[in-house]
Amino acid sequence: MTLSCRFCAAPLEATFADLGMSPFANSYIAPEKANAMEPFYPLHAYVCSQCFLVQLGEFESPEHIFSDYLYFSSYSSSWLEHSKRYVDAMTERFGLDESSQVVEIASNDGYLLQYFVQRGIPVLGIEPAANVAEVAETERGVPTLVRFFGVETATEVAANGQADLLLGNNVLAHVPDLNDFVGGMKVLLKPGGVITVEFPHLMRLVDENQWDTIYHEHFSYFSFSTVARVFAAHGLRLFDVEELATHGGSLRIFGCHEDDVAKPQTERAAELLEREDAAGYNALETYLAYGERVIEDKQQILSTLIELKRAGKRIVGYGAPAKGNTLLNYCGVGPEFVEYTVDLNPHKQDHLLPGTHIPIRSPEFIRTDQPDVVLILPWNLKDEIMEQLAFIREWGGEFAVRTPELTLAS
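RE: above sequence
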C-alpha cells in the first residue's frame, strides 16, 4: 500500500528511520492482561520528497489513542515552571487582560491555563481525553471542552468568540489530519490575534540522535521551514520563533493571519530559515542519511547495557515515557536488562510497559531496593530527576542517561 503525505498528498517512498515493529508507546498494560495478545505496528518514519515533512503512517484513530490518556502534564515540576514563564511572557508581550480570550488546544489537565485563570484572564481548554479534562475542571478551575480539534470544533467555539491567543503545546505532532487542524486554527483566531505552538524541533532530533522521540502517537516531525509551509497553505504566517530547551530542543512558533501587517517577520525567524536551509533541510539527502546513525546508536546502547550486566550491576529505570518505550522496544531491552522502572504518575504505577512488560513502580521503591544503576528514560528531564534521586549516591549508585550516547553519571 502506497502512503501519501498528510500535508501535500505526494507519495511517501523515502525512509527517514525504520525502528521495526512496536506497540503504541502509551498503551500501558494492566497486570491481569499481561498474557493477552498485544498489537505491534511498523514504526517506520518516512520523509516527503516534496515538502520534507517527516511522518508515520496512521494505524489507529486518534479516538482510540487519546480518548482515555495516561499522560498528565502536571507531574513534571519543570514543565509547570516552563508553563508559568510562558503565561507571564505572553501576558506582557501581547497585553492580555480580563477582556482577552485565551484558548489552548490539547489543554491536558489544566497545567498551563491555570496560570491565566489566576490572573483573571478568560480561558477555554479543548482536550479530547475526558479523564484528563475532568481533572482540569475540578482541580484547577479550567473550563474544558472535551473534543478533538479541527475546523468543525473551531467553528463551534468561534461562534461564541474568537481567540486573542490560541496555543497548542506538544499537540501538532499528534495530529493525523494536519490540514484540518491548522485550518481550524485559522477559523478560531481573532483578527489581530496570535497563535503559539510548541513542538520538538526536527533539526535537534537529527543533530542529537533523538530517534526515541519517534512513536506512533507522533504522526509528524517538523523543521521550521516545513511548518511555515503548512501554516502558509492555510492563510497563516509565522512571524517569530523561539528555540527552547524543552523536550530535548523545541520550537515555539508565533503565527498570525497572513494579512496582519502589524506583525513583521523577526530577525530570528529569518535566521532560522536560513540556518535550516544551509544545513540541508530542504534537500532529501539530509533525511536519507539519518537511518544509519539510528542503527549505530542501538548497537552502542546494547553494548553499554551488556557490559553493565556482565559486571554484575543491577539496572532499573526511571520514568515510563513514550520515548523510553520506543528505545526499549527498538533495542529489545526487557526485564532481563531493566528489572523495573518507577514513575511519579500514579495512573501508570502497577502497570507494565508496552511490549517489554517491564513493571512500573512508585519512585520510593528505589530507596529501599538500592539498585546499582538508574537508567533515566525521559532524558529531557535528567537534571530534575538526578536531583530528585541524589540519594542513590549514598550506596554508590549511578545514573545512565543518553546525552546523546548512553553514558554513566554519578
